[in-house]
């Protein structure tokens, strides 16, 4: 999708290096390229968006769910910064661990265990 093209389908434009979508090899070189217009239509299957400002209502599945961090910081200085620790404090106690269900291959039972990253620059 190219900004400034006011249509909801594809058009063939004569582009030079200033517009984007095409990088000429020589000075003054232009090429006709097919670009999509900036207007959103029903034939677009995926549209990436960014929430800039949160309004009054919740967006289902986007702003109403708070996902926990999957993995915490791995570097010791980043852990100190996150938990406001000094150089003397033990960083190993503040490592963010996560619970993992490990299936036993023969019995079919699952056991819980925790995983943590190997901390760098201790």
Automatic annotation (TrEMBL):
Q: Which GO terms describe its biological process?
A: translation
Family membership noted in the UniProt record: Belongs to the eukaryotic ribosomal protein eS6 family.
UniProt keywords, alphabetically? Ribonucleoprotein, Ribosomal protein
Record-linked InterPro entries: Ribosomal_eS6
Native organism: Entamoeba histolytica KU27
Q: What residue range is the signal peptide?
A: none
What GO molecular function terms would the record report?
structural constituent of ribosome
Q: In what ranges is there compositional bias, type Basic residues?
A: 100-122
Question: What is the name attached to this protein's record?
Answer: 40S ribosomal protein S6
Cellular-component GO terms for this entry: ribonucleoprotein complex; ribosome
Region annotated Disordered sits at 98-122
